[in-house]
Amino acid sequence: MINPTWLNTFCTLVEVNHFTQTAERLFMTQSGVSQHIKKLEQQVNCALLERHGKQFTLTVHGQNLYQQGSLLLKEWQFLEQQLKDDSPYSGLVKIQSPGSCGLQFYSQLLALQAEHTELNIDYRFAPNTSVEQAVANHSADIGFLTQAPTLSEVTSHKIGQEALLLVTPAHIKNPTWEVLCELGFIGHPDAKHHAQLLLSENYSEFEHVDQIKRTGFSNQISLILEPVSLGLGFTVLPAYAVGAFNKPALIKTHHLANPISENIYVCHHRNRPMAKRMHTVIEAIKAGE
């Protein structure tokens, strides 16, 4: 079995990329760091670093060990924390979701944290693909997604739905295909997914969003509708994101003939046992749906 102390020194060195700074972070001497790396190389019977004076690069074996070893260390740290304290109302919970889910869920979780002050909510906004990857590599404990995950490491179940809405500048009364093409599309991280779901069911001309010229892009959920409000294009967004926009008079929401909702999934790592506080968070979200 690989020595976890030596493995931790190795992974820290890779992340810091400096022997002296690694020693400082781990409260060791530089020679102690070197000894750990040497012993680890002897244990796995292969070179992990190629040294170039004071610099180094990873060998292929070193790269493989870092990728797998860093995940193991996170698992061990999680298990250790869980064994120490598995209270349903205390501890850190790292959560990620797309923006519209975040606008809705974060306020609910802040209310939960206000009630249970030992609970520590770390909430980050990211597109679906990034959220799924974060759960797979243990950067997030829980992810909320608006499309089913595809990675084998991630398991999920549906917890709700949210309507998708076509949003144009306020002066647009009839959003025909020709009008939309003339306006142009305001992109965002999940725009292709949203447009495919809604527009394909309501416009026979639609095949993919790239048919329409793109006239802007924003990755900030609170800013996506700003260019729309200025007449620079249209977009498709979940209802909660549209409802949160602070200039409603400058945009128009269109309810199309075939309404479409996207599913909301909660996901976590398939091989990681869920701490009680994670269940607390999920139940709070379900209760607010």
Automatic annotation (TrEMBL):
Residues 2-59 form the HTH lysR-type domain. It comes from the Bacteria. SUPFAM superfamilies: Periplasmic binding protein-like II (SSF53850), Winged helix' DNA-binding domain (SSF46785). Belongs to the LysR transcriptional regulatory family. The lineage of its organism: Bacteria, Pseudomonadati, Pseudomonadota, Gammaproteobacteria, Alteromonadales. InterPro entries: LysR_HTH_N, LysR_subst-bd, WH-like_DNA-bd_sf, WH_DNA-bd_sf. GO terms for molecular function: DNA-binding transcription factor activity; transcription cis-regulatory region binding. This is LysR family transcriptional regulator. Keywords: DNA-binding, Transcription, Transcription regulation. Coiled coil: none annotated.
